[in-house]
């Protein structure tokens, strides 16, 4: 009987250790791919308090500037591979960050 308990606890320990190792491998690969996709993309605050970002993200050249408007919304303008865009975002009454 004692031998079966030892084998059972050994199997449980093996399953737990496999789960831990598997989780570590999965998280490491996600972190590595995320870092590689965003390599060279940096953001900073300028002297007016705006967030200015530039660099390459997922193979695209990106330059953006984000500021707050008079209603407290985030207004982002910039270019992606030379194409201009403007986006306004806010937090809605349900707490979701909504952009249009």
What would you note in describing this structure?
With 100 residues, the protein is of the alpha+beta class. It folds into 2 domains: 1-37; 40-100, no CATH class. Helices cover 36% and strands 39% of the residues. It contains 1 helix and 6 strands. The chain has a 6-stranded antiparallel sheet, with no helix packed on it. Strand 5 (83-91) and strand 6 (97-99) form a beta hairpin. The chain is globular, with a radius of gyration of 24 Å.
Strand content: 35-45%
Strand order of the largest sheet: 1-2-3-4-5-6
What is the typical, i.e. mean, pLDDT?
73
Number of domains: 2
Global outline: globular
- Structural class call reads alpha+beta
Sequence stretches where pLDDT stays below 50 over 5 or more residues: 1-12, 14-35
Could you estimate the helical fraction of the residues in percent? 25-40%
Tags for this model:
100 residues, alpha+beta, 2 domains, six-stranded antiparallel sheet, 1 helix, 6 strands, 36% helix, disordered N terminus
């Amino acid at each position: 009987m004692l031998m079966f308990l030892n084998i059972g606890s050994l199997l449980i320990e093996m399953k737990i250790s496999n789960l831990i190792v598997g989780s570590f491998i999965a998280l490491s690969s996600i972190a590595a791919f995320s870092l590689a996709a965003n390599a060279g993309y940096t953001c900073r605050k300028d002297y007016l308090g705006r967030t200015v970002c530039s660099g390459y993200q997922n193979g695209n050249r990106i330059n953006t500037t984000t500021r707050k408007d008079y209603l407290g919304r985030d207004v982002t303008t910039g270019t992606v591979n030379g194409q201009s865009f403007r986006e306004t975002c806010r937090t809605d009454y349900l707490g979701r960050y909504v952009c249009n």
